Amino acid sequence: MIDLQSLANLGEVIGAVAVVASLLYLARQVRHSLKAQRTENCARALERVSAFQAVLSQDSDLARIFATGVADTSKLTGLEKIRFAWLLYEPFGSFEFMYHTYKTDEIPEEVWKRWSQTAAWWLSYPGVQPWWTNRPVRFTESFTLFVESTIRKNPTDMEASQRWQQFIASGVEEPQGTSPAGAPSPLSTRTAAER
Predict the structure, then answer these.
(1) Do the Cβ atoms of 137 and 89 come closer than 8 Å?
(2) Is residue 124 very low, low, confident or very high in pLDDT (cuts 50, 70, 90)?
């Protein structure tokens, strides 16, 4: 016959096993939740960038303003500069979101690396840097420090700007090289007429 002390000991063992099982289940649920959160954050970031790209691809006037503005904001009228300024808030707002979600391990490093290189590529354009310096609404302090560090490491790239203008003017078909930030450059200096 089992005495009271043995039953108490058995109860403690069963209780300990139940606690360990609960903790293992909870850890599994947390891992699953974090994975789902990372996937959702990536999707949200990409949706924002896609929406911005869709606007540019569907609105020829905004596309012209953007293409002109990134190269030289002095070629824009006052109203166009306002539109250009607010237009840039969308991709940089997306970059800021990705930056913060990366810092909290909510998006994978390789995703952030790709988009941080894209931000650096755009920041190398002579029209984007003045916008950043004169933007009317600030970003978070940590993202601002990241961007300003990127600008210091990646000064204005006049060759990239010229390739951009050639691309717009002549329709370049094949990419060549990479930008100073290491991001693939969607531009080439070879035009269809040169082939």
Answers:
(1) yes
(2) confident
Residue 136 in contact with residue 85, Cβ under 8 Å? yes
How much is the CA Rg of the chain, to the nearest whole Å? 26
Return d(Cα 26, Cα 19) in angstroms, integer: 10
The contacts of residue 30 (CB under 8 Å, 6+ apart) are none
Residue 99 and residue 112 in contact, taking contact as beta carbons nearer than 8 Å:
yes
For residue 62 the two structure tokens come to: 């905004």
68-96 confidence digits (pLDDT tens): 998 889 999 999 999 999 999 989 999 99
**Backbone phi and psi for residue 184, each to the nearest 5 degrees, phi listed first:** -60, 135
Alpha helices in 59-186 (DSSP H): 60-71, 78-103, 109-123, 128-134, 141-153, 158-170
Domain locations in the chain?
A: 44-194
Query: Helix 4-58 crosses helix 109-123 at what angle (to 10 degrees)?
Result: 30
